Amino acid sequence: MNTLRHILFFLLLFSVCLTLGASGNVKNEYSLSGSITDKSNGEYLPGATVYITNLKKGTASNVYGYYSISLKPDTYKVVYSYIGYNDITLEIELLSDTSINIELMPAAKNLDEVEITDKAVNVQVTSTQMSVTKMDNKTIKSIPALLGEVDLIKALQLLPGVKFAAEGSSGISVRGGGPDQNLILLDEANVYNAGHLMGFFSVFNNDAVKSVELYKGDLPAKYGGRLSSLVDIRMKEGNMKKFHGNGGIGMISSRLMLEGPIVKDKASFMVAGRRSYADLFLRLSKDEEIKNNILYFYDINGKVNYRINQNNHLYLSGYFGKDVFKSDFFGMNWGNATGTLRWNHIFDEKLFSNFTVVVNRFNYNLSYKADSPFAFLWQSAITDYNAKGDFTWFANPNNKVTFGFSTIYHDFFPGTIEGTSDDSFISNYALASNYSLESALYLSNEQKIGNRFTIKYGLRFSIFNNIGPATVYHYDNDGVATDSTVYGKGDFYHTYTGLEPRIGMVFLLTESSSLKLSYSRNNQYIQQAQNSVAGSPFSIWFPSSPNVKPQSADQVATGYFRNFKKGMFEASVEVYYKSIKNAVDFRDFADLLLNKFLEGQVLEGKGKGYGIELMFRKNIGKLTGWVSYAYSRAFKEVAGINDGNAYPSSYDRPNDFSIVANYDLNPRISFGLSWIYLTGQPVTFPVGKFEYGGDNIPVYSDRNSYRMPDYHRLDISFTWRDDQTRKKRFHNEFNISIYNAYNRKNAWMINFQTDPVDPSVTYAEMTYLFGIVPTFTWNFRF
Q: Is the same domain home to 148 and 67?
């Protein structure tokens, strides 16, 4: 009842604010609308600026390149612009609703031209959205890469407040949150495991990626379901004008991307493939055991888009990727598959819509020698079926309203294990599948109040239903099952609801500086039980239930944003505080895998995080890049752990310092550099031992009371290109990168061993993954 009252109050307040925001506008207004595309390839340009010089105000295109602005009847000088493209200026006499589609031409490549691949300069200062960074593949490509494999996740790890979960891992921790608290979307499809080769490379082929946006906690109202961040990755749409391709051959993998028109200016395609070939080198070994091993990954991206007419556009995209390892005794594989169908429909000049249907799946399996009495096959998976509708209503010059719905059907298949030989000692064992429905409605408005102040306020209402068949166990305080309740197929046996308010505001101090403030609440209804191997795909996702409450995070952030010298430099300072209810952790020595009583291993408490993030960036000239620093802390307080006292989160790494630089000596030669420093990760170490029954039993410290050694690493790169201005079919680029250039031995794992000579002595043994790793990559385009 309280929830209903809160929703009704919000709707009433929303209506009042919307009415007041429109009260100063005359009734006789017309819409100027249309789409903005790249003239060279026909792809839409999201975030392009439409500026009305007479009024000194404007708007920006949405993610699909659509714009709309309401104006009084008059003649206007309108400037259409996008970073890295030539502006177009039109004089428009607006006497009725008018649609104008614009094609912008990429500017000629020049070292002194503006080339910004983060948020456009004006948006960074004027947007109400905080804690957001946008990158395109040019930025990602300029950063030195491990084994020459360009990686957008590794690029994000160089931003303030974003840390890798472990050395070489594709998992990220944002503002102290765990990797399972990040919503990673590829064309709206959820990617549950973003790693190849145990997490050393991400599953995202940069050649197929158009852009990526990272939101750190302050999510738009249309998104939810995670506490820490959203990583929104968009694939290329395909060249509408001409056939084009590019690819590369590196030391670990090769890749190829093709795109072109199916019907010129009407329909296009994009397809990209990538495969590693470590297994080919293994075959050169003289050791028969090594020679027979199979180890590789591959992924395929595809997209088709079709412009039915001015008001309707269809997109069909998909991804399929897999990792495979096989030896004479052991095998494992895992992979993601996604499919997305989107329909853009423009109802009229003021109402834009997007309808989306998504299917995504992540699965893994382990197997042991088929002719052994211990032969087995272990399988696990999670599958989502998602339908959503998003609407944007350009109500008037001062109000832009977004609203919509989403619903996700989760199918959790936690695991089965079965013997696979006639004489196997392994008993067949299956965990029951879980089913749930996660739905949401949202409403938000961005309202301009005067020339300096803009506020965005919204509400997301989420509903989570557990669905039968299911057996729900009841646990005592020690996590021991004491009873159970059985529910039939299709029974909605438990429901959680959540109100998630979102508010953000910006006050312009000058045309190039602003202050921002935001507050957001996010609820998370599914979580991950991860084993101790960093980057491993072998974990279990499980839903909230009668025994596990959903986690909820409230975050407040404020910041100062400033641009200098017409966008040559930009700087920002952000401060945040986050509190978490029902923070999930696990009992000491918890048994997490293939455990039907997993919920009995879960403990819930509270958490908090706070920090300051500084970033200074240079966008123009021969030398570009950024310097960033973040100081942050993250703690949990859970009854049953550490005697109920607060302890550092597993991702509490207070100091985070990064330098990223790219120097263009001339149009054909460039140098890249990145350096990172991180406080060591919290760990729980043995502090003693005692003998029992002839065995040494370790005694452990309080949870996360020790730290691994601090981490730091320098990567450098050199790139040579042929003359890009010459009109020829084929262009080459050669890249040499050195990962960990000064050979820092960063700890990946610390094992404690008993001295074989003196069993009373225990010593620590550090394992590290990478020394100096030089790589060579040949890239080409045609």
A: no
pLDDT band, very low/low/confident/very high, at 6 (cuts 50, 70, 90): low
Tens digit of each residue's pLDDT (9 = 90 or more) over 433-479 = 999 999 999 999 999 998 899 999 999 999 999 999 999 999 999 99
Beta strands in 236-329 (DSSP E): 244-249, 253-263, 267-276, 294-309, 312-326
Position 171 in a domain: yes
75-88 tens-digit pLDDT: 999 999 887 788 99
pLDDT tens across 642-684, in order? 999 999 999 999 999 999 999 999 989 999 999 999 999 999 8
Q: Are 449 and 397 in contact (CB under 8 A)?
A: no
Ramachandran assignment for 729, one of left (phi > 0), alpha (psi -120 to 50 degrees), beta (any other) = alpha
pLDDT of residue 9: 65
Q: What is the DSSP string of 486-526?
A: EE-TT-EEEEEEEEEEEEEEEEEEETTEEEEEEEEEEEE-E
Examine the domain organization and report whether 448 and 543 are in the same domain.
Answer: yes
d(CA 370, CA 330) in angstroms, rounded, equals 9
Strand partners of residue 48: none
Q: Please list, in sequence order, all residues whose beta carbon lies within 8 angstroms of the beta carbon of residue 437, skipping any fewer than 6 positions away.
A: 407, 408, 409, 410, 463, 464, 465, 467, 492
* 3-state helix vs strand vs coil in the chain, percent to 5: 10, 60, 35
In a domain, 120, yes or no: no
- CATH number for the domain harbouring residue 374: 2.40.170.20
State the burial class of residue 579 (Cβ atoms within 10 Å of its Cβ: 0-12, 13-18, 19+).
Answer: middle
For residue 499, the enclosing domain spans 132-250+275-525+533-781
| Burial letters 310-341, b for 16+ CB under 10 A, else e | eeebebebbbbbbbbbbeeeebbbbbbbbbbb
Structural domain count, the chain: 2
* 3-class secondary-structure state, position 552: strand
- For residue 26, pLDDT over 50 is answered with no
Residues 84 and 149 in one domain: no
Domain identity same for 96 and 189:
no
Does 191 lie in the same domain as 98? no
3-state secondary structure of 22: helix
* pLDDT score, position 114: 40
- The torsion angles phi and psi of 499, rounded to 5 degrees, stand at -95, 125
Instruction: Report whether pLDDT(736) > 80.
Output: yes
Q: Give the Cα separation of 709 and 720 in Å (integer).
A: 37
Give residue-wise pLDDT tens across range 515-545: 999 999 999 999 998 765 555 677 889 999 9
Let me know if residue 261 belongs to a domain.
no
Q: Check whether residue 295 and residue 344 sit in a common domain.
A: yes
User: Domain for residue 33, yes or no?
Assistant: yes
* 598 and 496 both lie in a single domain: yes
221 and 84 in a common domain: no
